[in-house]
Amino acid sequence: MFDQLNEQANHVIQDAMSITRAHGGLIVRPAQVLAALTRGTTTAAGALRALGVTEESIRQHIPIEGSPPPRQQRIGVNAAVQRLVDRAAELARASGAEKGGPEHLLVALVREPDPETGRLLRKIGLEVAGVESALQQAQV
Questions:
Q1: Which of 24, 51, 61, 104 pairs as cysteine with 66 (C-beta 3.0–4.6 A)?
Q2: How far apart are CA 131 and CA 116, in angstroms?
Q3: Is domain 7-139 classified as CATH 4.10.410.60?
Q4: Is the pTM of this model over 0.90?
Q5: Do the bridges between strand 76-77 and strand 27-28 make them parallel or antiparallel, or are there none, so unpaired?
Q6: 125: closest CA among 44, 50, 62, 63?
Q7: How far is CA 9 from CA 5, 13, 25, 101, 119, in A?
């Protein structure tokens, strides 16, 4: 899928595609990536749980676009998600990791949100300092 992301982060993107499909969409946006980051046992998921952020609290802000598309219909990503993936890879390399992981996706998402994601982050109360602190606590 995305060569610059590790297996866990690519799984997050696949989950975001599932969330997009369930909401009747064809294009993944950062909000769906954030919802997918709450799933599983990654450091990012643990940090979000510690901050009281759940998939449901995010999904209620994702508009239903229609009926789910047919399974054979390809789900893509928008330019903001592509920038998010690229920024996560940059953060990973800067920290000495070969590929971006879920925690890099989360940090990239909260540090440099597009306008739509910025509004969502404010609605659910996520701020950069809180996310970075929760990630540090989750890694211990």
A1: 24
A2: 18
A3: no
A4: yes
A5: parallel
A6: 50
A7: 6, 6, 21, 5, 24
